[in-house]
Every structure is written in C-alpha cells, then in structure tokens.
Amino acid sequence: MLTDIKQFSDKFLKQTTNKKIQIISHFDTDGITSAAILTKTLERLEKHFSTKIVKALNQEEIDQFPDDKIILILDLGSGSINQLAETNKEIFIIDHHEISNKTIPSNITIFNPHLITAENFCTAELSYLFSKSISENNKDLAYLSIIGMIGDIMEKNINPIRNQIIKDSNVIIKKGLLIYPSTRPLDKALEFSSRPFIPGVTGNLSGTYELLNETGIERLGKKYKALIDLNEREMKSLTTAVTLRLSSKEAQDHIGNLYLIKLFSKIEDAREISAMINACSRMDESQIALLFCLGNSVARKKAERVHIKYRQQIISGLKYIEQQKNLEGREYVIINAKDNVKDTIIGTLASILSFSSTYKEGTVIIAMAYNENQIKVSSRMAGRNHNSPRNLKQLMDSITKSLGQGDSGGHQYAAGCTISIDKEQEFIELIKKKLEFELVKV
Questions:
Q1: Which residues contact 352 (CB under 8 A, 6 or more apart)?
Q2: What is the reported pTM?
C-alpha cells in the first residue's frame, strides 16, 4: 500500500506543477483533519490552492468545480465516480469509503484501500501517508491523523501501518475508561457524556454526584480530578461504577486506550479534540474546526464554546427520541425526527443509539431529520461485532435508485442518503419493504 501511495503522490506532484488546486473535503472529523494535513503539506510545497469543506459531494457541489484548478477530493468521491467522470476535469481522490465502480475513468486518480487491501484506514491516515511520502519533514502532522482515526472509531484495530503512524505522532497512551473530555473535571465529563450514554448520570447532575460518591473519588479543593489524572485505584473504582450502569457489551466497548497528544503546548485527549472538531462541523462551523486543526488559538476557544452547545443538543436529541413512539419492525427501527433535531446531528444520534443497549445487536437503525426541502437519512447497525449479511450502503443506494433521486454513500454498517421532503412517505414504505424482505430472505 505504501508503494501505491508513493505512486499517487508522485503523479499528483507532477500533474500539479504550476497549477492551482482546489481541496474539497468532508465536514466530519476525518475530513477536517485530512484537509488540515493537506493544507499544511501544500503550504510547505508553496502550491497555490484553496480549501472547501462540504457536507456531501452532491451534483450541485460537483457542478461548482472550478475550471482552472485541479480538484483534490478528501474523504468523499468513491461513491460518485460516474458523476465525477462526466466533469472531464482532472481529479485526485483520497478516500476510504466503499467503492462500487472498480473501473476508474481516465480523468480520475484515486487512492482508496478498498482497491488494494482488505484493511481499512481513515482518510486522515491516508492523507498523512501521502504527506509523509512527499517529505519526511511532514511527520509532525501525524497527530492530526490520530485525531481522524479516533473520529472514525478505528483505534482498536491496530495493524503495522497504523502502528507506525501512532509512533510517528509521539502520542501518549493510557489505558482506562473511554469518557471524554478526559482532561476536564470528572463531574462535568460524566454529566455531559453521550458516548456512552450513562443511564441516570448523563444529563443528571445529582446522578453524577451519586456515582462519584460510590467511587470514593473526592474533590481536590473545589473541583474533581480529570480522568487522565486518576490513579490506578480511582480508575478501577470509576470503571466499575460506570460499567455497572451499562450493558456488558457497552462496558467492553468503552474501556480501552486514551490517546493523549500535545496541542497548544498542553496535553489533550485526542478523543475530546475529535469531538470538538465534529461538533463545530455539525453546528455549521466547519471553518472554525479547520482553523483549530491548523493551530489557531482563537479558533480553539470558539470550538470549545460550540462544543458545549453541541453536547447540549445531543442530550436534548436523545431525550426527544426516547420520548417518541418510533416505527419498529423486525430487527429494524425508523426514527423520524422531522424538524425536531438538526439534520447535522441525526447521524451522531443514530451512532450513539447503535452503540447503546437500546437495540439488540444487528438491529438496523434508520434516523431521519429535515433540512429545509430535503431529508437527511442516517442508517446504522446496532452493536459492534456484526455478523449480519445486510449492507447499509447497498440499502441506501437501492433506495435512492428506486426513488429516482437523492445522493447516498457510506459503509456496510454505517451509511446515509439525502432525499427530497416530498418523498418522505414513499421512502419509509420502501425501507420497510426492503428490510422485511431481506429478513425473510436471510
């Protein structure tokens, strides 16, 4: 794979000589950190470029591609090969999403692990490998790929290449309970914890203090310790108290390695930084997230404020879903939040529910939210150890094809699409039919 990325970078450098470049990247944590890595890399090469962050690579975005620039697409594009081919523009893609069209048109150069190996990497890791293949001096950007890796929940699957990236990043690893922010007082971290959602604790200040009393962890002056400052006894006590409130599966998922990186001259939890970046994008502040990743201290302070608002919306969204009567079938649930939940956070809510004990392993979660005259749909497979033959990307692709409109993409166990609001009921009926049919067939 490293040979392939070297060939990709060599071609990119050759083709972009004395030419302008347009970076187009996805608005989630992986996309933002990828954009930051490439922004720094192209700056060091003294290239002329601009960066644009987008929610999705739909036809409207493709139609806006500039004619005088080479296009570099990050964390997007694998599901849009045919549309990109029609532009006749020179396009480079670094992406890790599933790719259905294995025949790559002549105007497109793509680096995607699915074309090479069964191992999966986030786009930030691929962007870092691209950057490092250009110059070893870019090793100082490795920490951004760690944030992207955390954002795409790939940190538990360590392979040789990922292990080398971790070494390059000089990250500090500490085993413990995976609750962020691990650098903030425990009472606040627990009260606002959404992953995991701790029954009786998340969103409940008195429940938070009750849990801390159980652990015997006391305040230091007026504040509680942060998670990363706990000693071994305190960490064990806290882990026990939290896991007793979770299912055994959830408890297992939320114990692991804390990745601590140096940022703005202090130690930060990569999970918290990832969440802050994601929060900015979900709250329509992706430029703040990008500037934050590029080391802007003013953007850092703004990101913290946005993150607080975002977490409040997540908790409100979870409570709203819990109070609604959702459409449940055999091994699937359809959550139609309409305009009661922001379209940019409906996917996050679906992910949180997929990792919780609310639905049994293998349940397909379909979550919907309005965005003006469109509906954002996010689908997730409940649980972690998937054995289901269902493929949510194929499901979303088939639905948009049946509707004759919409954009879709994603992975086997996490995918989404966007449809027009007038197709709402037709979409729901199609989803029900397809999921019921697949269950019978299985």
A1: 194, 195, 197, 314, 318
A2: 0.78
